[in-house]
Amino acid sequence: MTVVRAEHERGVTTLALDSPATRNALSAVLVGELADALTRCGKDTDVRAVVLTHTGNTFCAGADLRDPPPPEAFVGLLRRIVELRKPVVARVDGHVRAGGLGLLGACDIAVAGAAASFAFTEVRIGVAPAVISLPLLPRADPRALARYYLTGERFDAAEAVRTGLLTAAGDDADAVLAPVLDGLRRSAPEALAETKALLTAKVLQTFDRDAADLTALSARLFSSAQAREGMTAFLERRDPAWVV
């Protein structure tokens, strides 16, 4: 059963994360299918742009704690979004947690509706937002990231726009998305590719410089005693031992 559903209309391919039973958590299967779908979009001359969205009430709940992808596979997925020579637009109409915010950061444009909510929950299960920092640190407000990375607080779409995690938000995600897609459909494909390359150059420099170290950090933290306690507590729906 596929967990990434693709549809195409007027030059735009929509890739929907379609595993609502797991809240579209980043499993090894989902990461692999999404990476493959993006590769196909990159090779298809009929694809002008890609929309990344979701089914259910959650865009992405972060790492699948029962079937997590290897850190290097997730880093590869993030880089594939950034390097794709076609704009990738995130459309969010639900909750985004942890690694899901890495997907948003990798996208060129991100829009959301009123139902969207966001949180960097890594510290609450004993890990750190390591590899997702590759696209996020060059693009988002550093003081805001410091607060939300360190506290795991939940915040809304308006705050996500203010901090640079979102491009725009409104009551209706599709209404916010419509003018973006109209603009992309009116733009020359090669001009879009070269303009995206200008915009992503510094992000890719961060990948080149820091990906290996952050991948190693992520692997080390996920295998730590604190992470085991944090993930067990999460699955058992209780506070971890360090909560005071």
Automatic annotation (TrEMBL):
Which SUPFAM superfamilies would you find in this protein's record? ClpP/crotonase
Under the heading CDD domains, the entry gives: crotonase-like
Q: Which InterPro entries match?
A: ClpP/crotonase-like_dom_sf, Enoyl-CoA_hydra/iso, Enoyl-CoA_hydra_C, Enoyl-CoA_Hydratase/Isomerase
Q: Where are the transmembrane segments?
A: none
Reading the lineage from the top rank, the first entry is Bacteria
Q: Name one GO molecular function term.
A: catalytic activity
Q: Gene3D superfamilies per the record?
A: 2-enoyl-CoA Hydratase, Chain A, domain 1, Lyase 2-enoyl-coa Hydratase, Chain A, domain 2
Give the protein family: Belongs to the enoyl-CoA hydratase/isomerase family.
PANTHER family hit by this protein:
ENOYL-COA HYDRATASE (PTHR42964), POLYKETIDE BIOSYNTHESIS ENOYL-COA HYDRATASE PKSH-RELATED (PTHR42964:SF1)
**Protein name, UniProt field:** Enoyl-CoA hydratase family protein
